[in-house]
Write a structure and sequence with these properties.
By secondary structure, this protein is an alpha/beta fold. It has one domain: Vaccinia Virus protein VP39 (Rossmann fold, 3-Layer(aba) Sandwich). It contains eight helices and seven strands; from the N terminus they run H-H-H-E-H-E-H-E-E-H-E-H-H-E-E. Helix 2 packs antiparallel against helix 4. The longest helix is centred in the first third of the chain and has 15 residues.
Length: 225
């Protein structure tokens, strides 16, 4: 007879119920919190997040995504490249209701999810588009492109910069090796008309790790590798 496994107490996200969260998110709080609940109930089951991520959705994912909003325009169009579960794109759309947010994702099961999220949260400013960046070059142009855990900077330049006009900005959420990626991709960026990349340290609420955001302006939209 197989041994019965011991019951493991359910872990809880330490930021659940933190009164600073509604204060930080302001008017977007109901939609951001509803998005979190959708991720908790369906995210693991549908292969959108790992089982261990459920108890750290706030600090590692939702606040991490929200940190980029301060660098985004408050109108126009933002393309979220490789949206996946909707991070940061859904959070951006909730926090910037006057911005059209295009969630660009190549996998059908993920675009199905993104459609459901946009409908349930009533995000009228969201457009879900199935495809890769290369497939919409010359078709979609944005004021900003966001990216989180998609690719290294040398690849991102070729995917994201053709989606930007002159003065458009790429904002890539990165980890501890952000500066090393930037340094290694300088020449590639130049070939795509990128200006100097800067690594910004973005904070949200006290006690939560800061987010590294690589910010790059496309200074010359005529340059094509």
């Amino acid at each position: 007879m197989p041994e019965l496994s011991e019951a493991v107490p359910a872990e809880v996200d330490p930021l659940d119920g933190d009164p600073r969260l509604p204060e930080y998110f302001g008017s977007s709080w109901p939609k951001v919190d509803a998005f979190r609940r959708m991720l908790v109930s369906d995210g693991v089951l549908r292969g959108l997040i790992g089982p261990r991520e459920v108890v750290r959705l706030w600090d590692r994912h939702l606040l991490n995504s929200a940190a980029v909003v301060q660098y985004l325009p408050t109108s126009g169009r933002v393309i979220d490249l490789g949206s996946g579960a909707g991070l940061p794109g859904v959070v951006v759309a909730a926090m910037l209701p006057e911005v059209e947010v295009v969630l660009l994702e190549p996998m059908e099961r993920r675009t199905d999810w993104l459609h459901e999220v946009a409908e349930r949260l009533e995000l009228s400013n969201v457009v879900v588009r199935r495809g890769r960046a290369q497939e919409v070059h010359g078709e979609l142009i944005a004021d900003a492109v966001t990216s989180r855990a998609v690719a290294s900077m040398d690849k991102l330049y070729g995917w994201a910069l053709p989606l930007l006009g002159r003065g458009g900005v790429l904002l890539a959420l990165k980890g501890e090796k952000a500066q090393a990626e930037v340094d290694a991709a300088v020449k590639v960026g130049q070939r795509w008309g990128a200006g100097n990349a800067e690594v910004l340290i973005a904070s949200t609420i006290a006690g939560v790790d800061t987010t590294r955001v690589v910010r790059v302006v496309r200074e010359d939209a005529r340059r094509v590798r």
